[in-house]
Amino acid sequence: MDAVEQLVPEVGTKAACEAMGVSRASLYRRRARQAAPPVDDKKRPSPPRALSREETQAVIDLLHSERFVDQAPHEVYAILLDEGVY
Question: Which of 6, 46, 49, 61 sits a CA distance of 20 to 30 A from 86?
């Protein structure tokens, strides 16, 4: 793509892309990515109703238990509701 960028001022975008076998859309996409501001990788806050790490681990341990190892999570959920476990 750098070769295309070098040709563009001399022959134009369309001719440079055709000569190098590069789609103009690809060139424009690359330019847009380079011009865009950097993405801020901030961690999103945890939802207020999310399970804590301990609760999540308890659920995983329950799903991996011998009793429920061959059942889908929605089946385990239904069984536990029937037993009064919430």
Answer: 46
Look up residue 63 and give its two tokens.
């799903």
DSSP at 85: -
Crossing angle for the helix pair 73-82 and 53-63, to the nearest 10 degrees: 100
The 3-state secondary structure of 10-45 reads HHCHHHHHHHHCCCHHHHHHHHHHHHCCCCCCCCCC
pLDDT in tens, 12-66: 999 999 999 999 999 999 999 889 888 887 888 889 999 999 999 999 999 999 9
Residue 1 has pLDDT above 80, yes or no: no
Among all chains, which residue has been given the structure tokens 């476990």? 85
What Å distances lie between residue 46 and 15, 40, 50, 60, 80, CA to CA?
51, 17, 7, 19, 26
In the numeric block, the tokens 């690359």 are attached to: 30
